[in-house]
Amino acid sequence: MAYGEDLLKNGRCREAGLILARAAKCERALTAFEDCLEWRQAVMMAVQLCFSDLQFNQLARRLASK
Questions:
Q1: Considering just the CA atoms, what is the radius of gyration of the chain in Å?
Q2: Cβ atoms of 46 and 59 closer than 8 Å
Q3: Which whole-number Å values give the CA distances from 22 to 14, 44, 45, 58, 65, in the listed order?
Q4: Number of structural domains the chain divides into
Q5: Distance between CA atoms of 63 and 25, rounded to whole angstroms?
Q6: Are 4 and 25 in contact (CB under 8 A)?
Q7: For the chain, how far is it from start to end, CA to CA, in angstroms?
Q8: Parent domain of 59
Q9: Contact at 8 Å (CB) between 59 and 42?
Q10: What is the pLDDT of residues 18-48, one digit of tens each?
Q11: Which of 20, 24, 62, 63 could form an SS bridge with 4, CB 3.0 to 4.6 Å?
């Protein structure tokens, strides 16, 4: 997981998200994917986190507004 955080610090959010997702750090991975607008990956993390309809809508709005 430290490697994923290092990737984030270096602006490599997509790679960081993948590493964090493999480490089962889904919330942190979701944030990384949001930061780099990887919406498909963000939605997959939201499914893993059992997001409600309201949470999905909020995620979609955040991604659309960036």
A1: 11
A2: yes
A3: 13, 12, 11, 24, 27
A4: 1
A5: 20
A6: yes
A7: 26
A8: 2-65
A9: yes
A10: 999 999 999 999 999 999 999 999 999 999 9
A11: 20
